[in-house]
Amino acid sequence: MQVSSLNEVKIYSLSAGRSLPEWLSDRKKRALQKKDVDIRRRIELIQDFEMPTVSTKIKVSRDGQYIMAVGTYKPRIRCFDTYQLSQKFERCLDSEVVTFEILSDDYSKIVFLQCGRFVEFHSQHGHYYRTRIPKFGRDFSYHYPSCDLYFVGASSEVYRLNLEQGRFLNSLQTEAAESNVCDINPVHFLFALGTAEGKVECWDPRMRARVGLLDCALSSVTADTEIEGLPSISALKFDGALNVAVGTSTGQVLLYDLRSSNPLIVKDHHYGLPIKSVQFQPQLDLIVSADSRIIKMWNKDTGKIFTSMEPEHDINDVCLYPNSGVLMTANEAPKMNIYYIPVLGPAPKWCSFLDNLTEELEENPESTVYDDYKFVTRKDLENLGLAHLIGSSLLRAYMHGFFVDIRLYHKAKMMANPFAYEEYRREKIRQKIEETRAQRVQLKKLPKVNKELALKLIEEESEGQQATRKRKQKNLPSLLKDDRFKVMFENPDFQVDEQSEEFRLLNPLVSKISEKRKRELKILEELETQEQEEVEEAEGKASGAESSESSDDEKGWVEEVRKQRKLLRQEEKVKRKERFKEDQQTVLKPQFFEIKEGEEFRSFKDSAKKQKLMKKTLGDRLKLEEKLGTLNVSDTTVGSKQATFKLKKSEQQRKQQEAEKQHRQERKSLRRSASHLRSKRGRGRLFP
To answer: What pTM was estimated for this model as a whole?
Structure first.
């Protein structure tokens, strides 16, 4: 529950906090409440007091038991029962609702004015009747003595629908081109409508004639106000028999006495936004006016601001619960806001626990923590040199000191005390200790694979860290800590073979490079400790020594490589002799192989011929192919040459072709013998 205070008026927001989705089960909601502190501390005054997307209008029934709200999307109305603190019912509609009116004391009779010029009537069970008006409507009011509905909208006429007779009556003809709002006085039932030209026309329903006209556009213009365009009437509300409050589209609220054409008071919201709602609070003689950005409460006699509220989302409608301090808003968000202001009145019967809750909060106020501000005393301001800011907007007085912006405090502290040596020294020592702790390699056990390589890396890393500390360079990442090389110290397949030829030839080089690196580091350390004059001489000596040492290193390395090569040659000779002895001892025996069916045995001469052909050039191979008859080269008419190749046939294909040829010849000989016999028989019959 959020608490705000303005002019010592505390406002409790009862709908603050996150709302849980409807599709969550009760078990999951309870689990979330246990985990999340914000959800646990929130106050849900009415369960699911929200709309799917946007809420446009909100009203309370005359008996105070039901709260009704309309919104989108889809267009719908929701009725909430205050006795049960939950939703009573929900009805979806065909089109969006412009405004609605509760005709009965409870929810049994409701009238909706919809966007598509439709007027829809609902009873206790649901939809009852639907009709249509000639022009698009913007507002309507119900005249209780005659049971007439007065509709105003995009027309100069005021349409009257009698609910007792069930028919339209003669409309009222006004001088305005369009009308935006209307209201009926609850005492003498005077009908008033606000026009787009900034005028308020008053009509007597008994005479069906206009009895008065107020020009609010001229009266809203004062010396302090800046108006762009003609102010039109956007809100209208009667208070008692004589007072009426008018809201304009330019953000002014005018309070009139019906006996005078001049306003009693003009209140400007200073936002330039149309006034959405005007309500009267009779207990404290306040007027509650709201535009889409702010709700202001001010005294209707003096115009002095009582308090104000700025919700997070744009406001569409405001509703005061009768004879209490509860205020509800319909806004451009799914959740509808509920505020409790104890100064306006007590909590309603159905939420009387709010009084006890707010009293406990006032008895035990929580200390407020300001993250972006620093609390300083007057003495601190004098030390920082900011005493001249007392009384300005940069300092906010609080108790025995002031709140100052944390950024301004840091800047002033740096200017007043630019270098505090003791604090600086302690901070540097602490940083050095943390760096040494972080850079320390802590290995409890060496890896199972490549232990010698791991020890070597640890030694090199420790030496490199010492050098980087003195040179103030960045530390390089360690291979032992790098996940990319993790397998090298875990998988036995990556074990370094020290007996291999490559390792034995490279190992002298690696060892010499490491020794050379150590000598260079020692020389650099000595050079840094000496003075500038001695540094030049030391550099010359170091360079000569280094060159002599490097030449000695090269000679030693060459000798070691030669020794390793001699050893490798001797080992190879020994291995060859052993192989030769093994070959002499082994007795070769003939091996027989079985050829699969359908395959032919080819001699080793064929493979030898193929190898000889592959060694020959392309020209020689082409000449050989021409001799064998598998290649035919001919000149074309264009001048180029054309080569045609014939695939060589295997012996199996040749045998198959010969068998087919023999079979064809046998069939031909059989056909000839059969035809010869037929001819002989025919001759014997004709010539017996």
So the answer is: 0.53
